[in-house]
Amino acid sequence: METGSRRPLGEILLEQGVLNRAQLRVGLVHHHEVHVPLGRALVREGLCSDADVLRGLSEQLGVDAVDLDRTPPDASLVAHIPARVARQYHAVPLHLEKVLLDQGEREVLHIALPAPVSLEAVDAVRAVSGLPRVEAHIASDAALARALSRLYGIELPTEPPAPAVLAPGGPLLLYGWPPVTAVLMSRLLARNGFQARTASPLEVLHTGPGDIVLAPLQAMEGLLAGEVHIAGTLIVHGNSDDEGFERARQVGARGFLANPRDEQLLLRAVRRLRPHPHAGGRGSPDPATHSH
Predict the structure, then answer these.
(1) Which residues pair with 111 in a beta bridge?
(2) By CB count within 10 A, which of 104, 249, 271, 275 is most buried?
(3) pTM of this prediction?
(4) How much is the pLDDT for 243?
């Protein structure tokens, strides 16, 4: 159960038609930045359900999945798994099966565990239950937490909330710039009354309609791969030619920044999309930027 090479969960969910590659990319960004399992990241992002992830994990691990809400654990079997073992391994008893063998009848204890199934957990349950055979199934973390609370009164630590979506109208977001360029842009903008800060990939993906992201074209192509558009307004920097403008259009850019280190060009690009409250009439279009 813990040995051998496994196919990536993301690839399995793609094959099952649960996700497309753009959605998987969003989940992978969340997975790497927040350090939660990929399945949990995908559910947090609203890209699939617990049941979808469970089916994918079942195929990945070669272990049957069980929906504890539809097939609740047998409360009469709690004596087979003491509370300390249940707490340590998040294990709950499902049912007891009687199997007929040539030597007579044998009892098999079916249990639910989180994915990936731990051989140590199965061995521990076998030892404390006194039964010769224990069959493991996987269940979702949320369903296991509810079952442990109901059967044993065990309350698991709550999961930290997902990162909040950025509030509209917040600081300008700088993504994908070399550190020196990002510092220079922040100073130029601050000198003219605009707050700016460096943003992570996850924050860019979570932008709202009132947010503005400034990024190199190549960085946004790497993040979005032309398959998804962010809700925030995007200004990109790239080659000022037909190919550059077309690539900017494909990532959903509303503005094109010719030179991020040129203060006037930078301000004109930003003011076209977010006029400063004290800017007067300076928010008019300018040929230094191109709208897409």
Answers:
(1) 93, 136
(2) 271
(3) 0.64
(4) 85
pLDDT at residue number 227? 64
CA–CA gap between residue 288 and residue 266 (Å, rounded):
9
- Tokens coding 272: 């076209």
CB 117, CB 64: distance < 8 Å:
no
Q: Are 237 and 218 in contact (CB under 8 A)?
A: no
One-letter amino acid of 61: L
How is residue 224 written in tokens? 């979005």
Backbone region of residue 104 per phi and psi (left: phi > 0; alpha: psi in -120 to 50; beta: other values) = left
Q: Which of 157, 288, 168, 159 is nearest to 235 (CA)?
A: 288
CA within 13 Å, CB half, 223 = 25
Q: Is the pLDDT of residue 272 over 80?
A: yes
Q: How many CB atoms lie within 10 A of CB 278?
A: 8
Chain mean position to CA 82 = 34
What is the overall mean pLDDT for the chain?
Answer: 85
Note the maximum CA span of the chain: 92
- CA distances to 78, 114, 174, 281 from 90, rounded to whole Å, are 13, 7, 42, 63
Query: Cα(93)–Cα(80) distance, rounded to whole angstroms?
Result: 8
> What pLDDT is attached to residue 29?
76
* Burial call 63-101: b when 16+ CB within 10 Å, e when fewer: bebbebeeebbbeebeebbeeebbeebbbbbbeeeeeee
Residues 53 and 41 sit within 8 Å (Cβ to Cβ): no
